[in-house]
Design brief:
Blueprint lengths: L1 E7 L3 H6 L2 H6 L5 E5 L10 H4 L5 E5 L9 E5 L5 E4 L4 H4 L4 E6 L2 E7 L7 H23 L3 E7 L23 H14 L2 E2 H5 L8 E2 L11 E2 L2 E5 L1 H4 L2 E6 L11 E5 L6
Helix pairs in contact: 5-6
Length: 260
């Protein structure tokens, strides 16, 4: 079995203080993808850079205290690739790829458009550039899983108050159609929704009001995989016993073979 975790930390140092690395030590995870580091290399303590038993890799944002993604793995990867090769987006530290034999694991932090119309346009631009790369990745013929904060709730089941959010970033028709195209035309598979067609599976809650306590959430963190690898997903869970961030860790267990 291979256990993969995706977690938006909303600040790696903040999440550490709230117990994330203590949880990680007992999680049984083989690979852990983290997003929104809000830190540079010099800011990380040794246990944040390379937790006991793990190798650590990062794609930092140039702007201090902003964005950034990372990946921890028990097995050293054969190859690590930082960025998409698009300078304007790579400056924000949003993409990190690690290859393990025929398996590729990617940590992704897709831009949010909620802060301003300008950032929504950046999000659309990222999506436009990223789609051909997703098509190319799919055609590589490898087992690939892209873990991260995609900042889009795909269907009505994926957020509590969908009717009130149809004109808001994260649930815009264009964003949802982009994911539909990714799944239906390109062929990528949403592992959570494949396993649990009727379970909301929220992974993010606003800090406003009592959203977390009342479970008024959004499912915007995904593990999206190529079909052969997605078929190996046996179970998944969203960890809410402790709160490390405004997001909750998403864990998926993959069998060694699809028919096991």
């Amino acid at each position: 079995m291979l256990r993969i975790v995706s977690a938006n930390l909303n600040g790696i140092r903040s999440a550490d203080k709230k117990g994330f690395f203590a949880w990680l030590a007992n999680s049984g995870a083989d690979v852990v993808c983290v997003q929104e580091l809000k830190a540079q290399a010099a800011d990380l303590a040794e246990h944040q850079r390379a937790p006991d038993g793990y190798h650590g890799f990062f794609h930092y944002a140039e702007k201090k205290g902003y964005s950034g993604v990372g990946l921890y793995s028990k097995t050293a990867p054969d190859r690590v690739e930082e960025g998409l090769g698009v300078p304007e987006f790579d400056a924000e530290g949003r993409y990190l790829r690690a290859d393990f034999g025929n398996l590729t694991v990617i940590s992704l932090y897709l831009p949010s458009g909620s802060s301003s119309p300008e950032r929504q346009q950046v999000k659309f631009a990222f999506m436009e550039v990223f789609l051909p790369q997703l098509e190319a990745l799919y055609e590589e013929g490898r087992d690939i899983v892209i873990c991260g904060d995609w900042n889009i709730a795909h269907q009505e089941i994926d957020l509590k108050n969908w009717k009130g959010n149809m004109k808001n970033s994260g649930f815009l028709p264009e964003e949802r159609a982009w994911l539909t195209d990714l799944f239906h035309r390109v062929g990528w598979v949403d592992t959570w929704r494949r396993l649990y067609p009727d379970a909301p599976g929220y992974t993010w809650w606003s800090n406003r009001g009592q959203a977390y306590a009342k479970d008024v959430g959004w499912r915007i963190d995904y593990q999206i995989a190529t079909p052969g690898f997605a078929c190996r997903a046996g179970s998944a869970n969203v960890y809410k016993d402790e709160k490390f961030s405004d997001h909750a860790p998403l864990t998926v267990d993959y069998r060694d073979t699809a028919d096991a």
